[in-house]
Amino acid sequence: MSITMYSASVPVFVRMLGNLSKWLDKAESHAAAKKFDPSVFMASRLAPDMLPFPNQIQIACDSIKFGVARLSGVEAPKFEDNETTLAQLKERIAKTLAYVQSVSADQIDGTEDKDISIPRRSGVLVMKGEPYLRHYVMPTFYFHVTTAYALMRHNGVDLGKSDYLGLQ
Amino acid sequence: MSITMYSASVPVFVRMLGNLSKWLDKAESHAAAKKFDPSVFMASRLAPDMLPFPNQIQIACDSIKFGVARLSGVEAPKFEDNETTLAQLKERIAKTLAYVQSVSADQIDGTEDKDISIPRRSGVLVMKGEPYLRHYVMPTFYFHVTTAYALMRHNGVDLGKSDYLGLQ
Asked: How far is C-alpha A45 from the geometric centre of its chain's CA atoms?
């Protein structure tokens, strides 16, 4: 089987969002074992001018929601960014997964040269589909997933490389 | 142009290693401006049981060096993991870039179904080329690049999303 725009994207999103959801379970257990309020995670940041934990997960979800929507042309659901608990963040992940999995390979394959417009504060950035996937969607997604992971590790959650990769 | 194993991998490595090298320049300037010894970065960790800064960059480099070597069959150079300064880390990045760029598209394309053996502490993991690239090389690479970025941000280096993505 040859690599395609779909095979290079959606399976990665599904795998990593599944992993992220399991890390949140471990964060919940960690808070219970150490007897602290899990809302402590919500205010956690790696630097005073970096976004806190829930935003990292919201943006990780949105980066691929918009990625899939722009490539496939399938309208994405709107989410409110109002999560305040680990359970709500897990729901956000589940809703994102449901949308991403609702799009078929046919709807994403062949979009290598599609013109994609990305609204940014500095103006609209226009990229072709493949560079958009590899130089914008993927690094943004991994940035926020890894930062969420780092925040959990920084706060003592027992996670390791197998959890990160989702390997046995 | 259709996406290929090469187009989905090497351009990403080249872009992100170039970005990483520029972040190290900013780390150097930050230390000079704040009058602290840049070797402070070397001991920085996000959690007591996470690897420190130089290891994050060494492993980022090795993850793609081994990725390219295993997919292409082109022998990779050996590096000693003995970097103790930002300048040496930049050299490590440059040497990794030189190797990655020495491999041609022809040598990586068509490796979707190639059997790849990954030696791990728990035994040898065998994966096909495409899942190896998308579920092992890419997440490992992004993990260590993002963790290096996070450590610089945590230590006050002035970096933002454009630096991370390498966009203007």
From this structure: 17
